[in-house]
Hints:
alpha+beta, 47% helix
Amino acid sequence: MTEKKKREARTIQSVDRAMTALMLFLGETKELGITDFASRLELPKPTVYSLVHTLTKHQILEQNPENSKYRLGPSSFRLGLQYARQSDVLSTVSVWAERLCYKFGKSVNVCMLVGGQAVVVYKADPDQVVISYPDVGAVVPFHSTANGKMLLAYADADTRNNLLTDYPFTKMTASTIADRHAFEAELEKIRAEGISFNRGESVSGINAVAGPIFNHLGLMVASFTISGKAEAFTENEGQLVAEVKKTAQSISKQMGYSGRIYF
């Protein structure tokens, strides 16, 4: 091997170890302690402590003060969100989101699964909206939002199970699904119908309907909702659902998906 190739093949051991440590959180929803890291990385605890301390300093990890264990920090979240923003998915979906917003005069939110959370990565609001929530970058609940339900419904079984383990089914309104059994039944229905609803489950008086977006591999990469006041939404629900289905199929086709979402 030439000297040039040796330099190209060379890795920085500390960076390599840091990346390996972070990869432990893929599919892992629980926090990790120093002993956990040391065991999985097969490294001595002093080395692990220095590694974790450095990642925490840059907010890639953060320490839970209640149990001294570590979890992904805000910098990890921001990096994931930036990746989502620069993806082809977002550039494609944003055009359709603006069209839906203009056509119906209702807010359209696009969400992706980022770091095990349902994150708003794009939104289009009609001109007359005074208060706009949630904003881009906001994390929305899985159990009480149409986007959150959709993202979990089509996540792989292991990811879904991990995210629902110890999930707090906080009662947001009187309509919120408050237990895992009922929620998993809802997810099963969503997978069968390819559509999800939020009927005042997150904020009383606000309804939403969501559709999935699939890529060329047949994987769901994002979801989008049309939302509005419950009374007006109910009056036009049939038209809104039909438009969401049509748009979901069109975006997915543009992303290279060759199948049919709705039959």
